[in-house]
Write a structure and sequence with these properties.
Helices cover 81% and strands 0% of the residues. The protein is mainly α.
Length: 144
């Protein structure tokens, strides 16, 4: 056996190990890549009936937050357009309105999660209460 044979054998071995590792990586479950909705359903062990109600809560929450985000963007547009003429009263009014809208958005999210908790059975409420410290992590990478 010559040197060329060992080089080809080493090369084939490296390719085979790469194929094995790539296939294992692609087959492994990616919990960190699950959508927040599915994380909540999975961790709270929601029944099919609860999932239907939960999805309607999500739809309602999305429509409410979308409207608030649009209102915030409109106020931000007004804020930045006031830079041209340096209208401080318009800037202060826009900032105040943005603050109110952000507060309303936080309240909408709070009510949304209260509604989810209300949907839970007593054992699920224990799971939900254990999950609450992690809600911001679960939803931080989502685009909603």
């Amino acid at each position: 056996m010559n040197k060329k044979f060992w080089i080809y054998l080493s090369f084939a071995f490296l390719i085979a190990t790469n194929v094995v590792f790539i296939s294992l990586f692609l087959r492994a479950p990616h919990r960190h890549m699950m959508q927040p909705k599915h994380v909540i359903i999975d961790r709270l062990k929601l029944s099919n009936e609860q999932v239907v109600v939960y999805e309607s809560l999500i739809d309602k929450h999305r429509s409410e937050t979308l409207k608030l985000k649009e209102d915030i963007m409109a106020q931000e547009k007004m804020l930045f357009s006031s830079l041209v003429n340096n209208d401080t009263s318009s800037q202060q009014a826009a900032l105040a309105q943005i603050g109110k809208l952000n507060s309303a958005a936080a309240n909408v999210s709070l009510i949304h999660f209260q509604n989810i908790r209300d949907l839970c059975t007593p054992p699920q409420k224990v799971l939900f209460d254990g999950l609450t410290p992690h809600l911001s992590e679960i939803f931080s990478n989502s685009s909603k």
